[in-house]
Amino acid sequence: MSLETTTESDQEERQRAREFRDCMGRFATGVTVVTTTWGGDVHGMTANAFVSISIDPRLVLVSVSKRARMHDMLLASRRYALSVLAEDQEGVARHFAGRTKKITSVDFEWKDDLPLVKHALAHVRCTVDAHHEAGDHTLFLGRVDDLDFRDGYPLVFFRGRFYGVTSRPEGISIPALTAREQLEALDEGTERESFPLEYYW
Questions:
Q1: Quick check: pTM over 0.70?
Q2: CB-based burial label for 141 (10 Å; 0-12, 13-18, 19+)
Q3: What 3 state SS string does the chain have?
Q4: In whole angstroms, what separates CA 120 from the centre of its chain?
Q5: Contact (Cβ atoms closer than 8 angstroms) between residue 178 and residue 144
Q6: Amino acid 186: pLDDT
Q7: Averaged over 53-67, what is the pLDDT?
Q8: pLDDT tens digits for 15-55?
Q9: Measured between alpha carbons, how far is residue 124 from residues 5, 31, 112, 198 in Å?
Q10: What is the Cα–Cα distance from 56 to 106, expressed in whole angstroms?
Q11: Whole-number percent of the chain with pLDDT over 70
C-alpha cells in the first residue's frame, strides 16, 4: 500500500467521523456532569450521552469513551452520580470537559459518599448494574439508588455550542424562516466557543 493511498484513506475516515459528529450534533441534549470517587479523589466528566432506560427497575445509562480517564474510574468504583446542569452552569460544563481554566474549584454537596454539583437541576445516584462495550465507548448501566430535583431551566448542547432555554407564552410559535435565520447566524459566529461532540461522549 502506497503512502498516498494510506493518506487518502485517513482523510476519508476523518471526513466520515466529522460527518457523523455533525449529524449527531443536530440532536439537542441536556448537559450532565458524571462524578465518582476513587482512591480518595473526586473525578468528574461532562457528558451529554445520557439517557433514562427503565422506570421499573429505575435504570439510566451513560456512554463513556474508552480514552477518558473516567472510564477506568467507573470500572473500579462501580458507582457514579449524575448532575443535570442548569442554564447558568456553563462554566461547570466547560471545567469538567477540560476546556477552561477559569474555574479553580467546583462546589459539591455529598450524599451517600458521592459528590454532586451544587445547584444542578437534578441529581441521580447510581450503582453500576452492568457495562457493555460499544465500539470505542463503554455503556455504563446504572441502577438508581436515589434522586432529587428542582425547578429551573437546563443548559442545552446543540451543534457544538451551549444554550439556555427561554420559555414563551402558549400559542406563540416561531416562524420557520426565523428559525433558519437564527441557525445561519450561528454559522457566522457566536460568543460561545464551539466544541467537537466527542468531548461530551
A1: yes
A2: middle
A3: CCHHHHHHHHHHHHHHHHHHHHHHCCCCEECEEEEEEECCEEEEEEECCEEEEECCCCEEEEEEECCCHHHHHHHHHCEEEEEECECCCHHHHHHHCCCCCCCCCCCEEEECCEEEECCCCEEEEEEEEEEEEECCEEEEEEEEEEEEECCCCECEEECCEEECCCCCCCCCCCCHHHHHHHHHHHHHCCCCCCCCHHHHC
A4: 14
A5: no
A6: 54
A7: 96
A8: 888 888 888 778 889 999 999 998 888 999 999 999 999 99
A9: 49, 13, 11, 23
A10: 33
A11: 76
Cell numbers at 14, concatenated: 476523518
Band (pLDDT 50/70/90 cuts) for residue 160 is: confident
Distance CA 79, CA 183 (A): 39
CA dihedral 170, 172, 178, 182 (to 10 degrees): -20
pLDDT in tens, 124-133: 999 999 999 9
**In contact, 74 and 137? CB cutoff 8 Å:** no
